[in-house]
C-alpha cells in the first residue's frame, strides 16, 4: 500500500477495512478531545463493526475516484484521519477536506505537514482543481493549518453543521490547486 511520508516517523495511506479496529480505538481514546469539533456520535460509531462498514462504503467511493480516506500513521499506529471527500469531477474538479489528529500528537505540526502532502497528492495524482474546508469559528488551530497551506478564507456560513449537538457557524476556506 502506497504511503505518503509526512515526517521521518509518520505517513498517510488510504485506509483498509482491516484498519477498523485501530480506527475504533483511535476514536474511543479521542472521544472527549473530538467532542467539541465533531457531530454527536452513537455508541455504535465507536465499534470496530461500524468503522469496518464505513470504510467499506468509503472504499467503494474511492474506487470511483469520489472519496479518499487517509489514515495518519506513526509507524503502524493510527494517530489521525484525513478525508478528501465529496469529490465532484467534470468541470468542477473539487473536493472537501476534513481531518483530525490524536490529542497526544496535536501541536506538533503534523496536521499542517499532512495537509501539505495531501494538497500535492490532490494536485498531481487526484487531478483536483480545488479543495474546500471549513472550521468552527473558534477553531484557530485548524484555521492556521489551512491558512499556512495556502487556503483562502472565502466566507462564513451561519448554522453550517450540527457539531456537538447544535448548529454552529463555520468559516469556509478553499485552495485553488491549478491557476
Structural description of this entry:
One of its GO terms (molecular function) is protein-N-terminal-alanine acetyltransferase activity. By secondary structure, the protein is of the alpha+beta class. The chain has one domain (4-176): Aminopeptidase (3-Layer(aba) Sandwich), CATH 3.40.630.30. It is built from five helices and eight strands; from the N terminus they run ββαααβββαβαββ. α1 (20-29) crosses α3.
Question: What's this, in brief?
Answer:
With 179 residues, this protein is of the alpha+beta class. The protein contains 5 helices and 8 strands, in the order ββαααβββαβαββ. The model has no long low-confidence stretch (mean pLDDT 97).
Keywords:
179 residues; alpha+beta; 8-stranded mixed β-sheet; 31% helix
Mean pLDDT: 97
The domain count comes to 1
Rounded to an integer in angstroms, the radius of gyration calculated over CA atoms is 16 Å
Strand content: 35-45%
Under the CATH scheme, the architecture is 3-Layer(aba) Sandwich
What shape does the CA trace take?
Answer: globular
Biggest β-sheet description: 8 strands, mixed
C-alpha termini separation: 31 Å
Amino acid at each position: 500500500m502506497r504511503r505518503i511520508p509526512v515526517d521521518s516517523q509518520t505517513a498517510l495511506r488510504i485506509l483498509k477495512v482491516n484498519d477498523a479496529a485501530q480506527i475504533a480505538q483511535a476514536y474511543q481514546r479521542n472521544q472527549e478531545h473530538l467532542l467539541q469539533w465533531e457531530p454527536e456520535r452513537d455508541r455504535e460509531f465507536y465499534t470496530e463493526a461500524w468503522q469496518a462498514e464505513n470504510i467499506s462504503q468509503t472504499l467503494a467511493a474511492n474506487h470511483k475516484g469520489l472519496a479518499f480516506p487517509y489514515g495518519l500513521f506513526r509507524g503502524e499506529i493510527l494517530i489521525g484521519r484525513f478525508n478528501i471527500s465529496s469529490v465532484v469531477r467534470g468541470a468542477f474538479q473539487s473536493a472537501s477536506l476534513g481531518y483530525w489528529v490524536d490529542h497526544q500528537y496535536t501541536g506538533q505540526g503534523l496536521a499542517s505537514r499532512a495537509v501539505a502532502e495531501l494538497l500535492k497528492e490532490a494536485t498531481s495524482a487526484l487531478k483536483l482543481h480545488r479543495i474546500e474546508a471549513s472550521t468552527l469559528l473558534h477553531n484557530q488551530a485548524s484555521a492556521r493549518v489551512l491558512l499556512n497551506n495556502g487556503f483562502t478564507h472565502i466566507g462564513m456560513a451561519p448554522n453550517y453543521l450540527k457539531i456537538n449537538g447544535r448548529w454552529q457557524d463555520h468559516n469556509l476556506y478553499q485552495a485553488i490547486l491549478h491557476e
